[in-house]
Predict the structure.
Amino acid sequence: MQVGLIGFGRLGSLFSKFLAQDSNLYVFNQGQNHQEISQLGATPVEKIEDLKDCKIIIPTVPISELKRVCEQLATFISKESLVIDVCSVKEKPVEWMLESLPKEVSILGTHPMFGPDSAMNTLYGSKMVLTPVRIDEQSIENISRYLEMNGIKVIKASAEEHDKQIAHSLLLTHFIGRGLIDFGIKDLEIDTKGYRRLMKILGTVENDSWQLFEDMNQFNPYAKEVRESFVTSLKNIIKRLEE
């Protein structure tokens, strides 16, 4: 099967590594990286329109770029194609895909709950959220089976439920991690196990871009409420200490 990947950043290169083993993978990336793409067993293409014959197209672009990419796809995409997004928020990407893509094109929302650091060597034990948007049951079953064969636990959720939960899990973790980075947390000789566990949060966030952090917070409708609730809790603790 021909699969098209748009973008070759950290996540795109990780996907290419695995997808090239099971499909004829074509990768479009504005930054070129042709040699790196070829080394992974994929075929680099010069123009996004070169993906027109791909039955599955996966944009691995920043959240804030997805709408523009979908509008580009709409000008040439085959009606038999399936578009799969991999954004870490779901409500807005689903809305953009429905607005931009032709009605005949199938759509599946996903969120890989892993990244280049956690899945560097293997996907086994990872999770992936599937949000069916406009796709038949057999295709969902085939995709779920493929993921499970590669050791990935599949979680099906609506876009709303995904964004509500992820605002507490992923976004709150990144918020705390960014706070620790800004605070200047570092390894100490005199520490505790609890402190070392706290330091591990940095491994989750320090290699991700500020754009990803900003986009996750801007496009998740529940992010602000969770951030503000957490900050209020910190203020309440400080107030109790100072009474």
Observations:
- The chain has ten helices and eight strands.
